[in-house]
Fold each of these.
Amino acid sequence: MSNNPHHFTLDDLGGTTHTYPDKQLSLICFVKEDCETCNTAAPVLEALHQTYGSKVQVRLIAQSGNANATFADRHNLSMPVLDDSSCKAAFDWDIESVPSVFWLDEDDTVSSQFEGFIRTDWETLATDMGAKTSLPAVQIDWESLPAWRPGCGSKHLDPSVYDKLRADADNSPIRARRIDVANSDDVAEFMFDQGFSDGLPLVPPTPERVLRMLGGTHRDPQDVIATVPPNMGQATVEKIAINAVMAGCKPEYLPVIIAAVEAVCTDEFNIHGVTATTMGAAPVMIINGPIREKIGMNKGLAALGAGNRANATIGRALRLVVRNVGGATTGGVERSTLGNPMKFTMCFAEHEERSPWPALHVERGFDPEDSVVTLFAMTGGPVHIVDQTSRAPDQIAGSLGLGLEGVFLPKLRNLPVDALLVVCPEHIDTLMKEGEYPKARLRQRIQDVTMRPLSDMVQDESSGAGIPKETAEKMGAEALAKLVPKFAGTEYIHIVVAGSDAGKFSSAFHGWATGAVGSVSVSKKIDLG
């Protein structure tokens, strides 16, 4: 600590309030009742008080709450024992262990300080006090005392105590508006009532929890990461951390969420449109690179489902940022006709180790050792593609293509719309049975097996969707006989690998409007400092 310590105001055991230091010779010692070393020091402190108390204010700052009186009675202490059960004074004075001793001059400057019980330190202190006061030397049998005994950890260093003290400190990095909840109110219900929730219970974002979350990134808490539509709220690192706490994230997830917020708030991704469309679009997040293992993400068994904290809460945190910072509340800007369970969360890691192809982030221009988040705007999925009997590569590739027929509507073709195909490991094994089967070949196979004549798209009695009859009549038979694939180009077909080694069940996510009229998938490198 500095040579000019913090002042403090504390009550003694009788309820009298004391403010120290106060421009007098002072001996201040921090103690706690259950510390053996503090109990060794207590009789020495009492002897010093009895000898020099007429000219030196001797004060004990005790951390043990109701047990402070027990400590005082045990040693027949006559000096004031001040209650620091909140540990705020210990935090402000930046001690590490108890007993911590501070010998202060009349100008409140620390003349000397030490911790624990080193007999020579205490003897030197007694000598200094005698010299400063010109009083007779204190009578203590020093040889009966231990030569050395280590101190005990100060209670304020307990993580649950320290984080709260740090959050309440004058130099706390937290700047967000604090909301006080009455003791009689249920905090979970309060957060529901305030509209913070996505419909599921939230973790209360207490200052200490937010501080722990901020420890997951090197970024300054007040750095503005993005402006979040529709209300154009400023997503600072701190505000993202608050929502990450509410979502149930660990601090080590925060860099991923920050990158995801950056990605969705780009003009290309168009989170405003994704949120507002009545079609029910939602972000689907895929994580690549070393960060997957570092934070324990699921890429295998049930990768698209429940059971993994990172997968579930990272996606949820992103949605909460869009809701609480951007103002995208259901019934407000959020106008989805039916809604979409992916509006709660959809985030998973690619199973790069099981993939025969370059990972998604490498395919998109990043280095293999980079950690990257990629966001797609999807309206449906995951939709299972079931094929347990195909044994040839082109057969399983054909089934994967036919499984994508349902994007928007089976009869609609030549769609400029993204699809995200998640291929399971057993289907990968079948694809690679006869050698390499590149992604380009799989994409083309999907296009080939979904070829249909344009005439299949004409409105009829079965369905009024597709090409109007009047337009079809003008096109003529030759044009209507032209074969067209499901997608307007292979670039709309995105492929990743995930899932367990058992089960021939791949899945697909169906896109929204792709391109300038809707959303373009965006990848961002995760800043790990």
Note: The first strand starts at residue 8 and ends at 11.
Amino acid sequence: MVSTTIRHVVIAGGGSAGWLTAATLASGLQTEERGGLRITLIESPDVPIIGVGEGTWPTMRDTLRAAGLSESAFMRECDAAFKQGSRFNRWVTGAPDEHYFHPFVLPQGWGDADLAGGWLARHGDMPFAELASYQPHLCLQGRAPKQAATPEFAAVANYGYHLDAGKFGVFLKKHCLEQLGVHYVPDHITGVVPHENGDIAALRTREHGLLPGDLFVDCTGMQSLLLGKHFGVAFLPQRGVLFNDTALAVQVPYASADDPIASQTSATAQDAGWIWDIGLPTRRGIGHVYSSAHTSDEQAQAALRAYVRASGGPDDVVPRKLSFEPGYRERFWHRNCVAIGLSSGFIEPLEASALAMVELAGAMLLEEMPPTRAEMDLCAQRFNTVFTYRWERVIDFLKLHYVLSRRTGGADPHGYWRDNRETVPERLAGLLALWRHRPPSRLDFDRIQEVFPAASYQYVLYGMGFRPEPGVARRARPGEPGVQDADAFFRQAAELARRMLPALPDNRGLLAHIVRHGLPRA
């Protein structure tokens, strides 16, 4: 194998995935001017960008800060708002008034008491998240997760963002070119030139000739020009597990300029899918994601329009249709090519994992960047092992939302929810059997960087109405957390909510302040 020093990284494709990866690498590695890497991004000037999602996880705060970005500038230029978790409506039985939260804050006393046991023993009639965490109460009242005096990226309550994906890519591009020294080639990729050893030697472009490199990052979206089309790395479809393959998306203006901005993503279950509702400062992003095997485009569009109309929107919305094949690549790093973003896989928008997987991939590529070609295959093996595990855990967690639904009859006219209950991944089925007698714990998810922690499984599991059965009776050891300790933490969560609600501004008020004055720099 050629032992070439890695001096030039070429990122094929822009959008959120390409520019976020470029920002992560360029801000974390020595630049070409100091004897380090040259980073070049080639982006077609004509291909429209498909936003991988308008929701992020709290990890995005650290990603933006590490890249040297200003949170105030980000929120102004990307039409961003705060996201404190997700609210799930009508997922359990389809009843119009049922809901539960998956907040970003851990349950109060997580790891220091048997919260699930305490909830079941004394408070089983109260939603678990609203008992164990203060954050659902902030969401219900439309509170922001911080105050005007809170520094950039700091939080009173843990938060991520809702954002305009198109503007986000433009914002990152500007920062990469003006501040981080990333080289830019606006051109079409017309072919791939292989090296005699099987690696990619260069990309052939329409206007700029050959673009050589040592490591190539495939951010070309679902077409996956490098990893998929050139190398032929197999795509592993997951439609047999998670059925959604189509989305209808619309942008809906607020009825009034002072309408409240939601603190969370809302996901409302439908006959054959669900509708997302995301609040930005200037509009709402609403979409219906569904299974084309269980309903027609016309039925899905009628459901979307009914939702928009019922929530105060106009009657004449014209949605944009997006079709996708849920799944992921058999490998993500092959020879000298790494796929990040839609080129590596996509499942569905539930729980906003798409941008988070871009962050995780960029961060691991930064940490594992091989100094020479000789180390690259070992780095690729580690990367592939980690990301195969992560994609499998994303699928398990998303499927958890569906398999516990009790929607039947009129709430399941197409058999969509029944079919979901009948197709459970083997690992998830095993965990559900264990969780019949004990709550999800860190023993079930032992990786240092789990995609979803055990606390998230508890929020969804108990929010969906799952009730454990008595397990083996154990004698508590001195100092060991137990059911009796849970009530103190429930009271603590309630007290925090009581104190925070009057102290925190509403979302629109804080966002208006940020536009005018910004946030204090940390």
Note: The mean pLDDT is 94.
